[in-house]
Amino acid sequence: MIEKRSLATTLALALTIALTTLASGGRSAPASATLEKRVIDVGGVSRTYYLYVPPRRAAGPTPLVLAFHGGGGTAEGMDRGAKGKITAAAAKRGWLVAFPEGVAKGWNDGRPLTAPRDAPRDGVDDVAFAKALIAELVAEDGVDGKRVYATGASNGGFMTLRLAVDAADLVAAAGVVIATHAEVIAGAAPARPVPILFMDGTEDPIVPWGGGSVVIFGRSRGEVMSVDATIAWWRERDRCPDAPPAVEAIPNRALLDGTRTTARTWGPCAEGSEVVLYEVAGGGHTMPGGTQYLPKALVGRVSRDFDGPERIFAFFERHALP
To answer: For residue 216, what is the DSSP state?
Structure first.
């Protein structure tokens, strides 16, 4: 019995490290670009975010990307988990990136807060935090209010979805990685059609492709829609045409990574919006082009065929608020 308990404890610890490493980078990941720490008051509560300013900013008002870290991670570590590719994509375009810091290393994204470590997030209004952050950067840092975007992975992906629904008037487009639509906000209606992109792995062991419970350590972290149902939900809200999507087969550059990716685009939809799905066949709970932060047996495979953040930023470039 001692050996069994020790093994169970070891596996639980390993998965905890895995989820933390996903969001905070990993020891072998490259150092993140220089980030400026900032603190903002949101309803009497001090909240922190880190700002990346590229060496050369785009001319005129600057586009801004909000990048939400995953559960168990940190704002400073998110770019390391993506091998520095978030700030690289921003530097290429001269854009700003704000990395918000969650409470207790996570986000109140609308799913039930069932784990003891989630208790500090009960009642936290992370949508208000995002709105205040955007307002500050537009007013004080020359951000283009019509070109503010949101992206995130895992818990950060769920938070990105929450923002796309609850702050559709502020978010020009959204990029969601290894997350699908939570059932608790299935009845919601964004104020406008939101261009949205998803990247999900068909063999994700944490957020199931076919929908159901997000389970960690035997505890449900809420029910989610399947990828297909999530895409259908957004196609309906964005009033997309009833037509087959445009299909792109991503070149299989990494023959040994065990993944193949197909991108499907539905559109043009209402008000110039579109819905995009990167289906990573064989992919796990990982950022395409990011780190293999723990063994495949625990988190699944990483696609090496393409640069996930670069694809997300290229998608953002096509969209702006009216």
So the answer is: E
Question: Contact at 8 Å (CB) between 24 and 81?
Answer: yes
Query: Among 252, 248, 258, 255, which residue's Cα sits nearest to residue 314?
Result: 248
**In this structure, are strands 275-281 and 196-201 parallel, antiparallel, or unpaired?**
parallel
Closest CA to 165 of 153, 181, 147, 152: 181
Q: What's the Cα-to-Cα distance from 107 to each of 7, 42, 73, 111, 289, rounded to whole Å? A: 30, 15, 10, 10, 24
Q: Evaluate if residue 16 carries a pLDDT over 50.
A: no
- The rounded distance, in Å, linking the Cα atoms of 277 and 169 is 23
For the CA atoms of 268, 270, 276, 277, the dihedral, rounded to the nearest 10 degrees, stands at: -120
Digit-coded pLDDT (tens) for 57-101 = 999 999 999 999 998 889 999 999 899 999 999 999 999 999 999
Amino acid at 279: E
Strand partners, 68: 152
Residues 158, 222: Cα–Cα separation, whole Å? 11
Q: Which three-class secondary structure state does DSSP give residue 302?
A: coil
The answer to whether 289 touches 307, Cβ cutoff 8 Å, is yes
What's the predicted TM-score (pTM) here?
0.89
**In angstroms, rounded to a whole number, what is the distance separating the alpha carbons of residues 106 and 68?**
9
Structural domains of the chain, with CATH? 2-317 (3.40.50.1820)
- Alpha helix segments (H runs only) across the chain: 2-24, 78-81, 85-93, 126-140, 155-166, 227-237, 296-299, 308-317
- In whole angstroms, what is the distance from residue 228 CA to residue 211 CA? 9
Bridge partners for 273 per DSSP = none
Beta-carbon count within 10 A of 266 CB: 22
Distance of CA 138 to the CA centre of its chain: 22
User: How many Cβ atoms are within 10 Å of 69's Cβ, its own excluded?
Assistant: 30
Residue 297 has a CB neighbour count (10 Å cut-off) of 9
